[in-house]
Amino acid sequence: MLSEGLFFDVVRQALWISVIVSVPILTVALITGLAVGLFQALTSIQEMTLTFVPKLAAIVVVFWISMGFMTKTLVSFFTATIIPLIAGGL
């Protein structure tokens, strides 16, 4: 039987892993959004696609680059934490 302490520890680890995995994408989205917003403020161009397309392109590039890191992190979490809990007979 899974104890409350173990359950909350696994949830805490899972939330921390999700933060670690999402930081590269969120950072690039923030920086790109700030750069595009500054560009729009300096040039007085208020085009909606100007904010969406560069941010989407930057997110896709960073996702492609960091996909190996994300996969390795998630697989190691599952093999080290989740699978032993399942195999242990929840």
Structure description:
Keywords: Cell membrane, Membrane, Transmembrane, Transmembrane helix. The chain is mostly helical. It has a domain at 22-82. Helices cover 89% and strands 0% of the residues. It contains two helices and no strands. It has helices at 4-43, 48-87. The radius of gyration is 19 Å and the shape is elongated.
Query: In angstroms, what is the radius of gyration?
Result: 19 Å
Shape, per Cα inertia axes: elongated
Strand content: under 5%
SS content category: mainly alpha
**End-to-end separation:** 5 Å
Helical proportion, percent range? over 70%
Low-confidence stretches: none
Helix and strand pattern = HH
Protein name: Flagellar biosynthetic protein FliQ
GO cellular component, one term: plasma membrane
Subcellular location: Cell membrane
Organism: Falsiruegeria mediterranea M17
Key structural traits:
89% helix; single chain; 90 residues; mainly alpha; 0% strand
